[in-house]
Amino acid sequence: MTTSVHAELPDQLARQGEALVNSGWMPDMNSLLTEALRRYLESHPESLAETFVREDVAWGLSGDD
Predict the structure, then answer these.
(1) CA atoms within 13 A on the CB side of 19
(2) pLDDT score of 19 more than 90
């Protein structure tokens, strides 16, 4: 099963992606975006983000600069 997503990319980012596809590194933009999102999610787990938020809140409440 797949889900369609409409995304707007900055021109430079789109050109860089198209260059990777045109040079054969990825079969198409869909594959490139899927792989990029997969890698981002693997390297930024939700638990890590939650930890950073909790640390930021604790720092903000402590008043230490």
Answers:
(1) 6
(2) yes
